[in-house]
Amino acid sequence: MVTTEAATPTAGQPRPTVEPAPGASPRTPLWRARLAKYDQYLYGAVGITLVVFAWWSATATGVLDPKFLTPPHTVLSKLADGLAAGGDLRQQVWPSLRRGLSGFLIGTGLGVVLGILVGSVRVLEKAFDPVLLFFRSLSILALFPVFLLFFGIGEQSKVAIVTWAAFWPVFISTVNAVKGVEKILLNAARTLGAGRVYIFTRVVLPASVPNIFPGVRLAASYAFTALVAAEYLGATEGIGIYIRSSQESYQIAAMYSGIVVLGIIGVTLNLLLAGVEKRLTAWQLGLTNK
C-alpha cells in the first residue's frame, strides 16, 4: 500500500508561498478605504483652509493693506448679509444665472451639433478650417461692438456674448472627439454589417462623449467669465454690475463678496457637470477598470 504524505519543508528549505488568486487585492482597513474614497474632498478642504488662513494672515500682519484686500471674516459677513432675504446681492444672482445658463446651453447645443457635423464630414472641415481658425483667434472683447450693433444693449447682446464664449470650447472638443474615434471600432462595426446610421448613433457618438465633456466644462467657465464682462456694458442688474458699482463706490467688502459668489456658482456648475459626465461615461469606467 502506497501512501502519500504532505511534504514538509526541512531545515534550510524555504517555505512554500501561496500566490493570491487572480484579481484579489490585499485586505484594506475600512477607515483607509473610506479615506481613499473621500480624499479629494479632504484635500480640497485643507487647501481652502490654507488659502483663507494665508489671506487672513496677510491682512492681519499688514503685509497687504486691508483697504485693498478686505479680511476674510469681513467679506463673509458682508456675503451673509447680501445673500440674506432682501439682501442687495441676492437680488443680483438670478439675472446673472439666467443670462449665463441661457448662453451656456445655447452655445453648448450649437457647439455639439456643428462639431459633430464638421467632424463627420471631412470636406466641411477642410473648407471651413481657415474661417473657423480666424474667428476662434479673435478676442471676445474686440467683438463687443459687433454684438452691440446687432443685438443692442439689452439682454440679447449679453446672452449672445456668453453664447459665443461657450461655443468654441465645445465645438473644438466635439470635432476632435468625432475625428478621434478609433478606426478599429468603425471597421469592426462595418465587418458585422452595420449601416452608417447605426455606426454613427451606436459607435461614434458614445465613443465621442467622454472627449466632449472636457470642452463642456471649459465652456461653463468661459461663459461666466464672459458674463461679467458683458454685464459691464450697461446692465442694470447682475453680479457683474454689482461688483463694478461696489468698486466705484469703494465698498470693497461688497466687491469681494460678489467675486466669491461668482466663484461659488462656477464651482457648483462644474460639480454638476462632473456628476453628469460620470453618469454618462460610467460604461467607459467599467471597461477601463477591468
UniProtKB/TrEMBL annotation:
<feature type="transmembrane region" description="Helical">
    <location>
        <begin position="133"/>
        <end position="153"/>
    </location>
</feature>
<feature type="region of interest" description="Disordered">
    <location>
        <begin position="1"/>
        <end position="26"/>
    </location>
</feature>
<feature type="transmembrane region" description="Helical">
    <location>
        <begin position="101"/>
        <end position="121"/>
    </location>
</feature>
<feature type="transmembrane region" description="Helical">
    <location>
        <begin position="255"/>
        <end position="276"/>
    </location>
</feature>
<protein>
    <submittedName>
        <fullName>ABC transporter permease</fullName>
    </submittedName>
</protein>
<keyword id="KW-1133">Transmembrane helix</keyword>
<feature type="compositionally biased region" description="Polar residues">
    <location>
        <begin position="1"/>
        <end position="11"/>
    </location>
</feature>
<feature type="transmembrane region" description="Helical">
    <location>
        <begin position="41"/>
        <end position="58"/>
    </location>
</feature>
<dbReference type="InterPro" id="IPR035906">
    <property type="entry name" value="MetI-like_sf"/>
</dbReference>
<dbReference type="Pfam" id="PF00528">
    <property type="entry name" value="BPD_transp_1"/>
</dbReference>
<keyword id="KW-0472">Membrane</keyword>
<keyword id="KW-1003">Cell membrane</keyword>
<keyword id="KW-0812">Transmembrane</keyword>
<feature type="transmembrane region" description="Helical">
    <location>
        <begin position="159"/>
        <end position="178"/>
    </location>
</feature>
<comment type="similarity">
    <text>Belongs to the binding-protein-dependent transport system permease family.</text>
</comment>
<keyword id="KW-0813">Transport</keyword>
<feature type="domain" description="ABC transmembrane type-1">
    <location>
        <begin position="93"/>
        <end position="273"/>
    </location>
</feature>
<feature type="transmembrane region" description="Helical">
    <location>
        <begin position="199"/>
        <end position="216"/>
    </location>
</feature>
<dbReference type="InterPro" id="IPR000515">
    <property type="entry name" value="MetI-like"/>
</dbReference>
